[in-house]
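Weekly modeling sync, notes
Attendees: S.R. (lead), two postdocs, one rotation student

Agenda item 3: backlog of single-chain predictions. S.R. asked that every request posted to the team notebook include the full sequence so nobody has to chase files. The rotation student volunteered to paste the first one in as an example of the format we agreed on. Action items at the bottom.

Example entry:
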Amino acid sequence: EISEHITGTELSEPTAATLSTKQGITIRIGDEENMETKLQWLKTLLPRLIDEGKRFGTLDVTGTTGASFIP
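Predicted structure, as returned to the notebook:
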């Protein structure tokens, strides 16, 4: 479950929402457009990053064609 990894949210700027994980990864969500797709990318990629031992960095799901991880 993704929620067990989330430790914080930053929603002060509605078009630049972010989440923080206990592993130190920042997740850039952006605005509410395409939220279902963004959450699917998050559900797919976050467990993979954790399994690979990634610590710190940014998982950016704000795009329209895919997500990216920036160490």
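Discussion: group reviewed the output briefly. Helices lie at 35-51.
Action items: rotation student to repeat for the remaining queue; S.R. to check formatting next week.
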